[in-house]
């Protein structure tokens, strides 16, 4: 999102009015939930049940067809046994509604959906054991495997050529490099982009294509206690970055975000990789590019967080969550080098797969 004041800021009374008018429900409790550029609100109606009212930013609200596709994907995953949210129909049977409301920036249009509330805490709140990391890798692979079977008349919309968050578009970061002027990190990011051009792009024709969730991160995966005194995945959130990509992209994104939450980030790759390969084994070129793709996601996250803070300084705390930890990890992984990191990941994965 690059437009100032595009993020909605609905008041509790506006939320109550929408809930009543669109869904004929009376909100007894409303509280904010985290969001990068939309507005998410927990809603508990007096009629029972728990929901999340998701109000899209003004820019994404201009593309209702892709939001409808994302909503369909969530439902498709749910039907195939994965813990995704589903949208509740309005009283007129629609899964979303375009609302023209003034929430402080003049009258603007916002797409609104009422989603099922999934219980649990985010990954960032639980200890990341090897078992849980393995399960996270397995779930990411299973998710992409299911999404690849999805049929929809507008799947072509997921070919998001200039989508800055696609791991296929790392070279677009070059347009934003000025946000790192004067920061020694800029040289690392430039070097990673060069490695991407030299080692990933020539091998990409051998990657297997799929539909990526694209943001399988520490805040978009929910956990609940299981019967063995550990945790299990209870929710997959936020399909706003869904795009046509490659299986290896999803794995790289998953490893990167789990590294952010782990006290020893290098140890994350092995268990996530083992879980992933129990569903979708990697081919030679995919394996060879994993290290650079993980670094590339760190670069995307860091550069775009700095850029977003420049546009939205009021949202700095949320926008920089990943960035603050990520800078140190990126530098460490870069310094350790491809050969060392790959050996740790692949040797550990092999041990776990025996």
Automatic annotation (TrEMBL):
GO molecular function terms attached to this record: hydroxylysine kinase activity
Name of the protein: Hydroxylysine kinase
Keyword vocabulary terms for this entry: Cytoplasm, Kinase, Transferase
Broad class of the protein's primary localization: cytoplasm
Gene3D superfamilies: 3.90.1200.10, Phosphorylase Kinase, domain 1
EC category name: transferase
EC number: 2.7.1.81
Reaction equations catalysed: (5R)-5-hydroxy-L-lysine + GTP = (5R)-5-phosphooxy-L-lysine + GDP + H(+)
Taxonomy of the source species: Eukaryota, Metazoa, Chordata, Craniata, Vertebrata
Coiled coil residues, start to end: none
InterPro entries documented for this protein: Aminoglycoside_PTrfase, Kinase-like_dom_sf, Pseudomonas-type_ThrB
Family the entry assigns: Belongs to the aminoglycoside phosphotransferase family.
Superkingdom, natural source: Eukaryota
GO cellular-component term (any): cytoplasm
SUPFAM superfamilies: Protein kinase-like (PK-like)
Subcellular locations according to the entry: Cytoplasm
Start and end residues of each Aminoglycoside phosphotransferase domain: 29-276
Function statement: Catalyzes the GTP-dependent phosphorylation of 5-hydroxy-L-lysine.
Native species: Xiphophorus maculatus (Southern platyfish)
